[in-house]
Amino acid sequence: MESPPPVIISVGTTRPIHYGIVLYPAFQALDAFGPLEILNIVSTRHLINLSIIASSKEPVSTFCPPGDHNPLTSQCSQSVVPTHTFSSPPADLEVLIVPGGFGSREPYIKETVDFIARVYPSLKYLITVCTGSLVVARTGILDGRRATTNKMAYRKIAEWVPSVEWVPKARWVVDGNIWSGSGLSAGMDVVLAFVEKVYGKEEARYVADAMEYERHTDPGWDPFSKAPSGDGAGS
Amino acid sequence: MESPPPVIISVGTTRPIHYGIVLYPAFQALDAFGPLEILNIVSTRHLINLSIIASSKEPVSTFCPPGDHNPLTSQCSQSVVPTHTFSSPPADLEVLIVPGGFGSREPYIKETVDFIARVYPSLKYLITVCTGSLVVARTGILDGRRATTNKMAYRKIAEWVPSVEWVPKARWVVDGNIWSGSGLSAGMDVVLAFVEKVYGKEEARYVADAMEYERHTDPGWDPFSKAPSGDGAGS
Predict the structure, then answer these.
(1) Which of A17, A57, A134, B10 makes a 20 to 30 Å CA pair with B178?
(2) Is this prediction's ipTM beyond 0.85?
(3) CB within 8 Å of chain B, chain A residues 154-183
(4) Mean of the pLDDT values across residues A81-87?
(5) For chain B, how many structural domains are there in total?
């Protein structure tokens, strides 16, 4: 019922085409779907192929088992279908997104951690959202590098992995080819900043407008670094 | 590794427990997952059971077939697993969320439209995001009522369903028990406003902080009502 969006075809550029995201049980929904919405929109204007990679092709759920993070045993979760597995990943992966979530602290994500360690040397870019930076930190890749994370979980994570130069006040941090966003909704800002770098300012503006999202363009903007809720509960 | 979040148990209130969302092919990812992230967080503090309702239990994809909305034939989409079907919906549904997306204009969502028409009389609240208001408008429920929608699609939708009192400049609109949000990321603001009404101001603040989201609390805030991209391409 309406005219098609303007198309900008990438020809002869080195823009990435092959994107991937890893999912593990108890990932955080918005950590994944903020960035993925951005890729979905960019993919209508530039060729993008997305792989959703997990330990098997069984749907992966955001569900937190009853316990500290689900004390009322609410049944409120979403399951997403992977397209690839860690043992049979896509060829030519160029950009990998790593979301956070309560699963990020769990021993059961070892396969995810190992996959990231294995694939990182061939990536052009690695993007983390929220405690996705903890998942990557568990590989050792972030040792001595600057990164940020969820601000409600910040202090615990900084204690747990002191070998990373954690940045306490940042919407996002770029260190080499690793882009790390703060908690949850910051995933949209770090990926829009990435879109600006790779596809240009106008493209980032178009995507933010299409999302009706008032983006933060200053990587130092971070009121949540002093949120009164402070420490501990962050996903 | 960290202390559990504070729990506020709802006792003796009329707060809803049974939430649902409808999904249909080519729904918009953030329209669904902005609100769902909010419910996921609230569900750690108040009992919430979420049903994901679709025409069958097959995963529902955001994928837009090659054409106007996917001119480059990108393979960039996500599939979500329903918990219920339109023919066997959950009992006691109190709040229903209707996301938008390119599917909202399609004849193939008739089952979704019919389900909403059938279930609306027993709902406490109906929440739409983006062109989710078009899906609901197709039932006739919005005739003579105020609602808003995606601003890049606004004019076409207002032409298509003139029986609705469309509000051209609004982050969200409340008319009776129908809450309609503007495009994509506005879904977070309308649902946070809903959380504030139902669970209180402090709860909405907690959730926005946990999401590291700078929410818009003014329903009249809407810079996208005059986005230069204007008309047509909105999802």
Answers:
(1) B10
(2) yes
(3) 156, 160, 182-183
(4) 98
(5) 1
